[in-house]
Amino acid sequence: MCETCGCGETGSFQIRKPGQDHSNGSIPIHAADQCHGQHHDHEHDHGHDHDHDHDHDHDHDHDHGHDHGHDHHHGHSHQSFRGNGNGPGHHVHGNRIIHVEKNILERNDLMAERNRGFFEAKKVFCINLVSSPGSGKTTLLEKSVVKLRDQVPVYVIEGDQQSMLDADRISTFGIPVVQINTGSGCHLDAFMVNKALKEFDIQSHSVLFIENVGNLVCPALFDLGENSRVLVMSVTEGDDKPIKYPAMFRSSDLCLINKTDLLPYVDFSVDSAVKNATAVNPDLQYFHLSAKTGEGLEQWFMWIMDHINNLKL
Amino acid sequence: MHELTLALEIVEMVAQETEKHACSAIREIELEVGVLSGVDAEALEFALSVAVGGTLLEKALIRMVRTQGVGRCTPCDCTFEMNEVWTPCPICQMPAGQILSGDSLRVVSLMVDD
C-alpha cells in the first residue's frame, strides 16, 4: 500500500541520490505517486511536516490514449462475450457495451516509448539489468562502470525495495547514480525511470545502466524503454531457471551466466541452462563470465561499446 | 505481485472510460488474459477483488477470457498450440517460435448502465 500518504494505493516510490544524507540516510527528492489516478480523491489531509526543502513533483505528465473506445447501444442479446460458458444471459435492454480494447499495460508502454525516444534522441544506450536477487548484478555493475567510465559517460539507476546500499556502492566510483526505492513494489516501471532520468543531465553517446529490482517474475512485464534487456543468471541458481521463469528469459536480449568461477563446486550445467533458455527464447545471446574474478568480462564490455558505437552512426 | 499493479491499472483505465462515456453502473467487465501473458489468472482475480473496492467495478461481474497460445514455427511454417512459451514445434521440435496469440493482456469491454 501507499507509503507516502497511507491512502491504500500501491505504486508509491522514492527517488534519492547519494550524498544527501539526512537523519534517515538520505533526503527523498521525489515522493512520486504516478499510479494515483487523476480521479483519485484524497479525503484526508496531507499533514506531512518536512524540515528540509523538498520538491513534490506531482505532475501527471503521462499520456492517455483516450479516443479509441466507442459505445454501442444494444436492443437485443449479444454474443460479444466469449469463453467462459456463462452465455449472454446477463444482457438487459438499455445496457451499453463499451468496447475498450486496450492493453492493460498501455500507460506503462506509452511512457516506455517516451523514454526510448529520449534515449534515441540523446544517443544513450540503455541497459535494463534483470535477475533474481543475489545473482551478482551490482558487482557486475561495479566492474562495468570502472571499465567504461574512461571511455564514455556512464549513468546508473538503482532499483531496490529499500535502502541506498547499491547507489552508495556505485557512487564511490564517481558515477552519477539515482536510487529508486519501490517500497512494497516488486519491479521498476517506465514512470519511475522517467522521473529518475530527470535527476541526471545526461550527455550524448553515453551508457545508462538500470539495475532492476531483484525478481525474475514481475519486471518481465514492464518495459522501461531500454535498448537492451540483459538477464544475469548465476551458476549458484538452478539450470532449470529458464523453464521456471520463462517470461523473463523470453523478453531478454542477452543472458550473462555469472559466477563461472564457482562452476567446479556446484551442480550447474551451462549446457543445460543454455538449452533450456534457448527453448524459451531462441534469439537469446549468452556470455559466460565471473564478475568477481574478471573472467569473460571483456566480451561484455565489447558488446556494450559496440552498441554505443552503433548509436553514433 | 505484479498482478496487483495490473489490477490497479484496470481500475484506473475503467475509471477513465466510465467518465468519458458517462455511465451510472458497470454490470460486467471482460478481460483477455492470454495463457502466455506471464500473468497468473487466479492472482489477478484476487488482486482485482481487492482493487475494485469502492469503485464502479465493485459489483461488476468479471469475465476473464483465457486466450489459447498459438505459435508459428519458422522452419516448418506451421502453426501449433502452445501451452507454455517453450512449447516446441510438434513437427521439427524446434524451440518456441513466433507467438501469434496468447500473450495478450487487455480490457476488452464493459457492459454499463446509462
* Uncertain residue ranges of chain B: none
String of helices and strands of chain A: EEEEHEHEHEHEEHHEHEH
Q: Please state the structural category of chain B.
A: alpha+beta
Radius of gyration of chain B: 17 Å
Tell me roughly what share of residues is in helical segments of chain B: 25-40%
Strand arrangement in the largest pleated sheet of chain B:
2-1-6
Mean pLDDT of chain B: 93
Which shape of chain A, going by the Cα principal axes?
globular
What is the tally of beta strands of chain A?
11
User: What overall geometry of chain B do the principal axes of the alpha carbons give?
Assistant: elongated
Beta-strand content estimate of chain A: 15-25%
Order of helices and strands of chain B: HEHEEEEE
Strand order of the largest sheet of chain A: 2-1-7-6-8-5-9-10-11
Largest sheet of chain B: 3 strands, mixed
| Alpha carbon gap, first and last residue of chain B | 35 Å
Report the total helices of chain A: 8
Number of strands of chain B: 6
Give the overall pLDDT of chain A as a whole number: 81
Q: Specify which chain pair forms the largest interface.
A: A-B, 54 and 50 residues
What does this structure look like?
The complex is a heterodimer of chains A (313) and B (114). Chain A has 313 residues and is an alpha/beta fold. Chain A is built from eight helices and eleven strands. Chain A has helices at residues 106-122, 137-148, 165-171, 190-197, 241-244, 246-251, 270-280, 297-311, and strands at residues 13-16, 28-32, 70-73, 96-103, 124-130, 154-160, 177-181, 206-211, 228-234, 254-258, 285-288. In chain A, the strands form two sheets. In chain A, strands 2-1-7-6-8-5-9-10-11 form a nine-stranded mixed sheet, sandwiched between helices. A two-stranded antiparallel ribbon of chain A has the order 3-4. The model of chain A is unreliable at 1-10, 22-70 and 72-92 (pLDDT under 50). Chain B has 114 residues and is of the alpha+beta class. In chain B, strands 2-1-6 form a three-stranded mixed sheet, with helices on one face. A three-stranded antiparallel sheet of chain B has the order 4-3-5, with no helix packed on it. In chain B, β1, α2 (41-51) and β2 form a beta-alpha-beta unit. In chain B, α1 (2-20) packs across α2. The longest helix of chain B is centred in the N-terminal third of the chain and has 19 residues, at 2-20. The model of chain B has no long low-confidence stretch (mean pLDDT 93). The chains are: A alpha/beta (313), B alpha+beta (114). At the A-B interface, β4, α1, α6 and α7 of A face α1, β1, β2 and β6 of B.
